[in-house]
Description:
The chain is of the alpha/beta class. It has 3 domains: 2-141 and 268-339, FAD/NAD(P)-binding domain (3-Layer(bba) Sandwich); 144-265, 3-Layer(bba) Sandwich (FAD/NAD(P)-binding domain), CATH 3.50.50.60; 350-454, 2-Layer Sandwich (Enolase-like, domain 1), CATH 3.30.390. The chain has helices spanning 15-23, 39-44, 46-65, 74-97, 156-160, 180-191, 211-221, 275-278, 313-328, 359-365, 380-385, 413-425, 430-434, 446-451; strands at residues 2-8, 28-32, 103-107, 109-114, 117-122, 125-136, 140-142, 172-176, 195-199, 224-226, 231-238, 241-247, 253-258, 260-263, 267-269, 300-302, 344-346, 352-356, 369-375, 391-397, 403-409. Strands 1, 2, 3, 4, 5, 6 and 16 form a 7-stranded mixed β-sheet that branches. The chain has a 5-stranded antiparallel β-sheet with strand order 17-18-21-20-19, sandwiched between helices. A 4-stranded parallel β-sheet has the order 10-9-8-14, with helices on one face. Helix 1 (15-23) runs parallel beside helix 9, helix 3 (46-65) crosses helix 4 and helix 3 crosses helix 6 (180-191). The mean pLDDT is 97.
Amino acid sequence: METDVIVIGAGGGGYPGAFRLARSGYKVVIIDPKGELGGNCLFSGCIPSKTVREIAQMVWRNNRILKSNLKPDFSVIQDHKDRVQEIRYMQHREELKEFRDNIELIRGKAKLIDNKTVEVEIENGIIEVKGRYLIIATGSEPVKPKFPGSEFAITSDDLYGYRTPLRRLPDDITIVGGGYIALETATILKALGYNVRLLVRSDKVLKGFESELVNTLLPLLGLEIMYNSPILEIKKIGEQEFEVFYSDGKGNKKSLKTGLVMLATGRKPVLPEGAGGILALDSKGHISVNDSMKTNLPNVFATGDVNGKAPYFHAAVRMSIAAAYNIMSNSTPMDYVDFKSIPVTIFTIPPASYVGIMPSEAERMGISFIEASYELKNDPMAQIYDEMGGVLKLYFERGSLRLIGAWIVGVHAGFVINELGQAVAHGLTARDLAEFADQHPTTNELIAYTARKVL
């Protein structure tokens, strides 16, 4: 089989670029082991986890504001999650029909033979596909470290996966890890009425995030976090009871009993077989790319989690589109991804978001900036929801007053940050933000209030 472009992976890093290429007349073959569009985000990641999160947040607000005592049946939540996933799978199938003349989706496992040839293992044999260009968008998967009893632990894929058999949860749950997936899941399950604790190897959580943001967020979460407590072993001691052994950081072995252990110890790139032999990789095994998504081979692009630049679906979509445009310009870069303008949200309850250059980075870069802040206790939406913790911070370049970065902890953070991302991407100034009339009452209107503080 011959085609113009081979896309390995049908998630956010793959199908948006494939659609754009098909719209311009390119013949595209998409290869994916699931045989569906949506990737891990739809199968076990952002869509199912945020479906469960939104329900958990509704329960949390009901119990606080209306003095309810709700603890919903987790199997009912999982049923709704599955329905949302099914709706989106059907939606993607309909989208694919529009491109039936230019896109062929093959269910199979891809192996790179060279930079223009892919061998695909399908259900009843092997086929070979040749293409002028190649986009690798194979995503990432949870890291599951090996230690005694690790086979008894689950990962986020087991909890959120499409039609997962995990429909009921025990009252006591232990999560191992201190990254955003660990904290998000901990607050989701806590809001649903489960007793949750975190075992963290080091003395910090959310490493890599701005320390002031983290220090503002953590007190609002109310989580039981056991720092300097690396896990050592899991023993099964009952039908649904486990003993977890961990170190207290001083060489002492301690234990606790729990009904479920979830490992949230990071993610690693998924590389198609043969990729390591022809593509340059970074120290963590990601495919190395520049800002045009081009690899060390001029006709091969890598997008999404597999390149390690920004492990988020919306970032993968942006990368996928950039790769498509650069293929359309005969591999001469004409579209570059600005990673600093891609917003990031930690979907805890309550959430936190950031975009752009943070103060610690600005100081390292020698950028002089002016800070403006606004406490959410003065925000009408925060008052309405009785979620008055948190703060919005804006950072403007001194002199030009261009917005270079922002973060927000608290109600509607994930919505507010999109507007701030636009401002960072397009170089908007404090005056631009101050003069825009966001609707009242919305948390977005705090952007203008905050910007006015520097004028």
